[in-house]
């Protein structure tokens, strides 16, 4: 462990103490992994040699009049505060556009703070002071004459890899989130598990946050693709819908958790959707038809 690693982790523990003091009620701060702080402490004490997982948690905020409740999803990289933390705010009091505007403003505020300083407490206070203004903003603009509203945004595609995708409730959550956010792509279940989503960048990022919380081990975003668009985004889609894939499995499918998907069939599926280059990115090997 380097001196910088130790300093960062010690500062993270210090900030967690500050946050628990600011929010003394148990329901105000909820750790994704209840043992994460203890594991960091043991790592610093030299009891455990393996690098502990990130400290990830949710802060549940209320405005002074308690009219607006929000959830702040926080993930602390091991080298925070030398690097920025990952923050995302959501609230049932805001629509998707308002939520997007709030998170962009929060990111702008965070970038104004001095790098290397603890900032979660500052972000929490900023949100409590400013969140109410976003529930009354972001009214949709009137549609211009001609019936088509011209927008400029970022079309995004994410390729997500997991060691496996088995559980029915997880598969349902992936399908429901993709449908709700108007994303197309697929979910390859089994071992390995692969998810591709495409749509507006903000929707893709929201999907990624939704399925990662609570903490899902053995999952990573392997590759992303982005394009600036003005108008109809559908012309950039490689997939017409979002579907669940199950190719011929080797093993006792449904009886044991050791089955594997047929990657040859999966490569042909990617090839059909003009995405065969992704195979090597996902698995680190080349494939032939």
From TrEMBL:
Domain (RWD) spans: 14-134
**Family annotation (SUPFAM superfamilies):** UBC-like
Gene3D superfamilies per record: Ubiquitin Conjugating Enzyme
Which CDD domains did the record assign? Answer: RWD_RWDD2, RWDD2_C
List the PROSITE patterns hit by this protein, alphabetically.
Answer: RWD
- Give the source's domain of life in one word: Eukaryota
Provide the protein name: RWD domain containing 2A
In which organism is this protein found?
Leptobrachium leishanense
User: Source gene?
Assistant: RWDD2A
């Amino acid at each position: 462990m380097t001196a910088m690693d130790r300093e960062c982790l010690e500062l993270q523990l210090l900030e967690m103490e500050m946050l628990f003091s600011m929010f003394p009620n148990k329901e105000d701060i909820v750790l994704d992994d209840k043992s994460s702080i203890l594991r960091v402490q043991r790592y610093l004490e030299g009891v455990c040699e393996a690098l502990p997982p990130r400290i990830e948690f949710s802060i549940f905020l209320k405005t002074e009049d308690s009219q607006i409740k929000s959830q702040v999803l926080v993930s602390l990289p091991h080298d925070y505060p030398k690097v920025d933390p990952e923050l995302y705010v959501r609230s049932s009091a805001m629509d998707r556009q308002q939520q997007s505007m709030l998170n962009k403003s929060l990111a702008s505020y965070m970038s104004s703070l001095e790098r290397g300083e603890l900032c979660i407490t500052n972000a929490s206070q900023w949100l409590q002071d400013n969140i109410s203004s976003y529930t009354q903003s972001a009214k949709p603009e009137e549609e211009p004459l001609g019936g088509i509203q011209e927008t400029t945004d970022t079309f995004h595609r994410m390729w997500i890899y997991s060691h496996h995708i088995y559980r029915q409730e997880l598969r349902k959550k992936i399908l429901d989130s993709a449908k709700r956010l108007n994303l197309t792509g697929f979910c390859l279940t089994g071992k390995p598990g692969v998810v591709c989503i495409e749509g507006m960048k903000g929707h893709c990022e929201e999907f990624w946050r939704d399925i990662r919380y609570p903490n899902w081990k053995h999952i990573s975003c392997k590759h992303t693709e982005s394009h600036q668009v003005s108008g109809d985004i559908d012309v950039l889609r490689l997939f017409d819908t979002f579907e669940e894939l199950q190719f011929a499995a080797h093993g006792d499918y449904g009886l044991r958790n050791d089955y594997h998907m047929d990657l040859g069939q999966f490569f042909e599926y990617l090839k059909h959707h003009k995405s065969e280059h992704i195979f090597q990115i996902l698995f680190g090997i080349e494939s032939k038809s």
